[in-house]
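Figure 6 in text form: structure in, sequence out.
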């Protein structure tokens, strides 16, 4: 094949030596450009290092030659990752926005978790509704509560960053509680006061077990406990709302089916209602976390003055009534239930953000009146023990009264120490672990102390 020699500017063909000289010149120029560029980049890097604290100068350098500045920052960051200025500029210049996961994915995941955990909690209840196989109705109910309590703890475990240690403690407690309740039931559930009390007070321990999984490593912080108490109150409110809504919608749908001669009432009663009872707590918690409503504190503040007035009238009238807690057992129990409601009112009222001086004064007055009422109830407890002898019920009520009295006195103490009618919830809830101690005594000590009688 023919090869055409490149022509020079004068039209003549260049010689081979001239062509080689041209290639060397091109290579030399490219080499010099690389050396110059490297020197300029190194100089720029040193300038950036020298002006680490001079942000205006760095901005000027960046705007003067963005490509060179980007290249220098990249090398600086790779060479010295501890250089904060280079790290900040690297994040600014090379930031890649991560695509957020579709919200539908998280929603479906949460729904799947709720459906699965509710199904596991529903199985013992479904077992209990089958008349052909249930051996002991009361036992299955309490054991179902144990399973449900652990499912709630597991839900918090899945939502709060996998606190393995706390979950292990909760799982161990629930397993021990499961077998312990079986043991108590076999001893004597129907005829034993100490055993019956243990079955009811164990729910307090279940609540603290759920709190342990909710809070994780922050379980000792009073702020975390105050938030969990608020969630518990909101859970009761929203669970009631959702359950009533479920009943209303179910009634309409089943009535429509009945109109076309299809009867699903029995299946609805045996399956859907128990399953709704199991899944609605999860739905309520999910709704509370997404909406951040505070209905419990609002309701407590709204009804607190009304409750205070009613309690004051009740206290005065009880002094002139012939029925006294000293002699009447039902009145005695009513007084104790009343004390529980008052403490709940005071606790949830402190969780609110109201600055109303009237509400705060009502809270203080309610605490004072309730202390007097608790002393009255405590004297009735001591009187009944001295008159009728000690029993598991009387001793349980005595210890409970003392614990609640301590709670009320602690609230008043915080009020006087803070020199304010309003005490932050974080400073009130620090007393609540005393109820865990109370529940532990009633559940694990009293049955053995009274020999399961």
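Output sequence:
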């Amino acid at each position: 094949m023919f090869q055409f020699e490149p022509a020079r500017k004068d039209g003549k063909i260049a010689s081979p030596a001239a062509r080689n000289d041209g290639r060397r010149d091109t290579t030399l120029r490219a080499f010099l450009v690389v050396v110059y560029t490297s020197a300029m980049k190194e100089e720029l890097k040193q300038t950036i290092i020298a002006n680490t604290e001079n942000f205006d100068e760095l901005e000027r350098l960046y705007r003067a030659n963005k490509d060179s500045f980007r290249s220098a920052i990249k090398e600086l960051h790779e060479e010295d990752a501890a250089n904060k200025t280079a790290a900040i500029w690297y994040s600014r210049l090379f930031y890649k926005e991560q695509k957020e996961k579709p919200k539908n994915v998280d929603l479906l995941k949460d729904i799947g978790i709720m459906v699965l955990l509710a199904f596991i909690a529903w199985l013992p209840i479904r077992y209990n509704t089958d008349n052909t196989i249930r051996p002991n109705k009361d036992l299955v109910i309490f054991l179902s509560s144990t399973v449900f309590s652990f499912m709630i703890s597991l839900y918090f475990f899945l939502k709060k960053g996998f606190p393995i240690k706390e979950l292990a403690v909760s799982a161990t407690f629930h397993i021990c509680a499961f077998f312990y309740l079986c043991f108590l039931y076999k001893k004597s559930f129907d005829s034993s006061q100490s055993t019956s009390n243990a079955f009811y007070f164990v729910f307090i321990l279940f609540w603290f077990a759920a709190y342990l999984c909710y809070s994780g490593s922050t379980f000792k912080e009073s702020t975390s406990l105050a938030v969990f108490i608020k969630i518990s109150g909101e859970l009761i409110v929203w669970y009631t709302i959702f359950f009533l809504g479920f009943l209303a919608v179910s009634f309409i749908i089943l009535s429509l089916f009945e109109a076309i001669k299809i009867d699903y009432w029995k299946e609805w009663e045996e399956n859907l209602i128990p399953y709704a009872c199991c899944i609605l707590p999860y739905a309520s918690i999910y709704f509370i976390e997404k909406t951040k409503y505070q209905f419990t504190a609002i309701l407590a503040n709204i009804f607190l003055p009304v409750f205070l007035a009613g309690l004051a009238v009740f206290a005065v009238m009880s002094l002139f009534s012939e029925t006294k807690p000293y002699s009447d057992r039902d009145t005695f129990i009513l007084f104790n239930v009343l004390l529980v409601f008052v403490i709940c009112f005071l606790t949830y009222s402190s969780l609110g953000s109201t600055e109303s001086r009237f509400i705060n004064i009502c809270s203080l007055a309610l605490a004072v009146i309730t202390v007097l009422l608790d002393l009255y109830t405590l004297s009735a407890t001591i009187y009944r023990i001295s008159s009728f002898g000690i029993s598991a019920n009387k001793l349980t009520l005595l210890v409970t009264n003392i614990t609640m009295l301590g709670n009320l006195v602690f609230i008043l103490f915080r009020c006087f120490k803070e020199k304010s009618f309003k005490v932050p919830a974080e400073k009130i809830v620090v007393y609540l672990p005393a109820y865990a101690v109370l529940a532990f005594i009633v559940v694990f000590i009293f049955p053995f102390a009274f020999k399961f009688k």
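Caption detail: The two ends are 117 Å apart (CA to CA).
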